[in-house]
Design goal:
By secondary structure, the protein is an all-alpha fold. The chain contains 9 helices and no strands. Mean pLDDT is about 80; it is low at about 105-115.
């Protein structure tokens, strides 16, 4: 299927892996695909999202807000199951070494994620739905806009939830994509007439 992806869509998928590594996540999810799409500033999806007020920084903040508390709770629950009170440990460490002693330094990662990173089932579904979107929109290639529409059609991944929380839905994205394509076509026609 990747042979049908445009260069921008391929870049978004590769960038999604980088985003997962950067966020120290062990698997590529829909949220990483969304960040990968936003990285392609010239891509149709990034331009449409920009028109709708979606920024990479805002998406990253929403992802961290959704993921980090759950990750910390899992850690605390795992330690509690073997009789360790995480809050008591944190208090004792901070008494000995100062406040924030357990916080990771910026750029520090728990472990390297090199090479292939697995893709979540929801992200795989997004890739499948992007093909359907390309076919529905009568496109010979799968572009970034199709990946974005696939995220919205999948509807349950973190990326779709982040977009829904920001008030972005399928009709808004389709309208933004269509408006950008019309403007691009008009600009091309203007250049052709001038040339």
């Amino acid at each position: 299927m990747f042979e049908r992806f445009s260069s921008g869509a391929r870049h978004a998928v590769v960038q999604a892996q980088h985003e997962a590594r950067h966020l120290d996540h062990p698997i590529v999810g829909t949220e990483h695909l969304l960040l990968g799409l936003l990285d392609g500033r010239d891509g149709l999806a990034a331009r449409a999202l920009g028109r709708l007020g979606i920024s990479p920084a805002g998406v990253r903040a929403s992802i961290k807000e959704a993921v980090e508390p759950a990750r910390r709770q899992l850690d605390a629950d795992a330690l509690a199951s073997i009789g360790i009170d995480l809050d008591a440990v944190r208090t004792r460490v901070e008494e000995s070494f100062g406040p924030g002693a357990l916080e990771r330094a910026p750029g520090c990662r728990r472990g390297p994620h090199r090479g292939y990173m697995p893709i979540s089932p929801r992200a795989k579904k997004v890739l499948e739905l992007s093909l359907r979107e390309a076919i529905r929109r009568k496109s010979g290639t799968i572009g970034t806009e199709h990946l974005l529409l696939g995220i919205l059609r999948e509807g349950k991944g973190l990326a779709a939830l982040v977009l829904a929380e920001a008030g972005v839905d399928t009709p808004a994205v389709e309208a933004a994509v269509d408006a950008i394509q019309r403007a691009d076509d008009a600009a091309q026609d203007g250049r052709a007439d001038a040339g």
